[in-house]
Amino acid sequence: MKRFSKCMLTTLLIGSLFLITSCETIDNIISSFKDTGSSVKESVTPISQGYTRPTSYEEAYTYRTDAPYKSIQSLLKTKNVESLRTTNVNDYVNAVIDFINENGKNDFEKAKMVHDVTALLISYDAAGFWSGNIPEQDYANVLKRKTAVCEGYANVFYHFCSKLKLSCVVVHGYARGVGTSLIATENAGNSNHAWNMVKLDGAYYLVDCTWDSGYMDGKVSKQDYNTDWLFIKPEHMIYSRLPDNSKYQLLEKPISKEEFVKLPYWRPKFFEIAESAEINNVQKNNQVGNNFTLKAIAKDGYSLSYSLSEARTGKEISNRIFTKDISEGGETVFTFPSAGAYLINVYYWKNSKAGKGCGQFICTASEGSEVQFPQLYSNDFNVKILSPAEMPLVCGQTYTFKVDGGTAGNILLAVGKQFVPFTKNEDSIWILEYIIPSGTKTVTIDAAKTATARSYSGIAKYTCK
Known about the structure:
- There is one protein chain.
- This protein is an alpha+beta fold.
- Strands 10-7-6-5-11 form a five-stranded antiparallel sheet. Strands 12, 14, 16, 19 and 20 form a five-stranded mixed sheet that branches. The protein has a five-stranded antiparallel sheet with strand order 21-29-28-24-25, with no helix packed on it.
- The termini are far apart.
């Protein structure tokens, strides 16, 4: 089997969530896992194996916009240019190169344009991947078909860069994706993916057009342009891919296969939106007692959320996650109902009702915990529950309910048919001292846009005993 027949698309998200089908086991979970805080540190000096890495990524990261150049989008739709793609592919390449040379202001912009051409024009060859019948992946055949696996994406990017006289490398190595599992033993020496390095202003940058072109929804490829893997820092790339040749890690001190397989997954976006994250102790598989604490605070405009499931069955576990107030460190606590392995998914949110995956890792609990947390519902008001954190609530006892109301105009506690109002203090925290009535089974915290609104949204639900 040729090397490229093993390549895979590992930006595998359903819509914005990680692809984990409800009836599949962990062996089919897509684990495109990246960097947590291991011992890997950002280097600011040239590496000694012939490939210099940047001293700063400040300029490069200005091109990670998650938006393609409109001029490139228009170029790809131009009829006379598009007709060349099928009739004379070399003339097509030259037409694209001429356009980039005329419009690209610098090498970064030119490389970004090549990235956009590759990621926008080519669709992932899901049918070929799943059937094992992979056609030729040279740049000419890929451009004519407009489909490829990772090898084809990398070859197209390489060819355009070469025509622009930008030094470029096709990198082969192991990537966590389809066919890999967090639970199973990883063979990090099994090459299954291809990406690129491109030299800009005297230093090499990592690029993966395959992962930036889209994702697979089940066995169907979906286009979904992004720039998560454009000029990405090696410290953020290493936790998803291990190059066959260690010099292509672009790390001052390359890591071994043994070190790689211990790393959890953090998508690069996690590091962009996490203002402070004490994650150096997180591994791919964390051996714990009956709970685990992760400290991560999202930057303004972003938020983080989590899901918990049984690692081997994929069964989701509810009422076992609670994120504390940011003033208390932004810690998220996970408790586990029994001994066993659990998969934790991490998502980020920004002005969207659909969270996007940015990390995964496993906790293997040695025992179970009785501690549960209230059931939380997504809401449009950015309301956050501060206390009480644990349940079940005990009837007859007094509890201090505290809520950060976000943009809500009113907060109520629903107890049966009774609605008890909260009081907003000078710190914009909504508070209610309340004795749980005897015989109460559940209580919910509800929020509305205004105090006179007739429609309320459920924020959290507590069970009582």
